[in-house]
Amino acid sequence: MRAWMLPASSDGFDKLYVETLPDPTPGPGEVLIQVHACSINYRDFAVAAGKYFGGALKAPAVPLSDGAGQVVAVGEGVTKFKEGDRVQGSFFMNWVDGPPRMSAALGDGFSPGMLAELVVLPESGVVPMAESLDYAEASCLPCAGVTAWNALFEGPRALVPGNRVLVLGSGGVSMLALQLARAGGCEVIATSSSHQKLERIRELGAAHTVNYKTIPDWGRFVGQDLGGVDKVVEVGGAGTAEQSMAALRSQGEVALIGVLSPEGGPNPRGLMMTAGSMRGIFVGPAAMARRLNAAVDANGIKPLIGRRFGFDQAKDAYAHAWGPESFAKTVIELA
Q1: Of 106, 89, 4, whose CA–CA distance to 52 is shortest?
Q2: Which helix (H) or strand (E) holds 203?
Q3: Less crowded by CB within 10 Å, the N or C end of the chain?
């Protein structure tokens, strides 16, 4: 099989190379998947740069956490899947349900990555695809989709119809959150620095959009001029968290994902004025992925794909996803 690899001590996605590896076989409790599509998350750039948890790669590794494909074989003892099933990976391979269990995560440099023609995963790390999606669409959900679902509908302040939601930017998590929130009967406000992207976001159903370049104090603007929100899907982190707190109305929640500017420390004082809260989000278990997929099927949600690339164009896909033209999800499709 062919697989894209990052070398040991990789310092960027430009170091990606293709290697031919022996075809894997599933052992007891394992599932062999023929991968049909993968998608790129911001986290994948940190892995490629050697700046993810654990630091620089100690050995060559297959990247990417998000992928979907078809089961081609199962190992002894596997009962939940059979040959021919359409499936996706679960970001945390051993976190099935319940409280956070931060364990092996796909594509982290130590665990299997999805950017290969074949991948072996434990049965606990495999989830059936949403029936209404194709492989490319399903590949958008394991990390970004579950993160958005967790932020919106899990925890003590799950959204209800009529709530208001603020999403930041036009990346994969934010656009999936917009789609999910709209399907849940909520009003969405979105930020971006691009007028063109804001126009596309309005076409997707956002009630209000805010250009944070022309309105740098966007948190106060959302909180006061637009009446505030019940939930902020906070993908920025320390650099934007105080603005997100300012955007809350009474007893709202900042769902902190915080991967874009994670350094530093926001002052939480702003939460006092609204009795607000902040909840940490780090993707979610396989059970959340199943609930998300059921909601996708029930509501006819189609994850937004900004660009599609072929397997041999993986470097171009990374470059596009990193660049200013990126919108929603960037997908790599395998023949």
Answers
A1: 106
A2: helix 195-203
A3: C
